[in-house]
Amino acid sequence: MKVSIITTCFNRIGSIKNTIESVLSQDYADIEYIIIDAQSTDGSVEVIKSYASKIAHFVSEPDTGIYNGINKGLQLATGELIGLLHSDDIFYSSDTISQIVKEAQRTSADIVYANGLFVRADNVNYVVRDWVSGGYYRERIRKGWLPLHTTVFARKSVYNSVGPYNEEYRISADTEWLIRAFYESDFRIAYLNKYVVRMRMGGASTNMRTMLHKWDEDMRIYKSHHIPQYISVSLKVLSKIPQFIKAKVKNFSNKYKTI
Fold this sequence. Notes:
The protein is an alpha/beta fold. 37% of the residues lie in helices and 23% in strands. The chain has helices at residues 16-24, 44-49, 66-76, 96-107, 156-162, 173-182, 211-224, 229-238, 241-258; strands at residues 3-9, 31-37, 57-60, 81-84, 89-91, 111-120, 123-131, 153-155, 189-200. Strands 1, 2, 3, 4, 5, 6, 7, 8 and 9 form a nine-stranded mixed β-sheet that branches. The model has no long low-confidence stretch (mean pLDDT 94).
């Protein structure tokens, strides 16, 4: 089973090398790696080009945002299974893709999702949010639940059916796509109870300056899909609190072990 991994990048000279090597270090052989760069000016392009022989597709041109870049990558992807790894993120371990593929094959799932960690930008071993998604059932969406976007691996047939990301939403297009795939469709969905990604804090949706914009987009998205927006969006926000608490406990435990 070929797996396409799409990375979007814009001026990420401090992290893009780690992201690329995270993909290239996977023990799964059949990976099609696609990098869509928004014409970076900080040296990111030169770093990416240094790995040119190991990248299936590399595009560097202006775009209108991260979801425009992802949609470009989806158009190039030929893998049976497609996953995303942003330019601030790294896979949890070298066998992450192997585990995802194994689960997809074992369950014949159309979509596999898992757990992820938000970590400090300067220390990927320091956990800020511990996102354990838990099992899926459709009505959880109405209660504000969604899986962590970058832990979702979907078959190309899912994207062909559901369609691309709605670029009208600059921050929450992932939420809108997940609702289409998990709530409005009838795909076979499997939950892999393992960590698959470490995400550096500071992305578009984790910047405090953009939280009100995200809230507005989420409200419009839930309303457009006929989901009670005030309840669902509020529960979605509240669901993050245990993730921060769990992370603090984990960091304290790890520190205590080293004493």
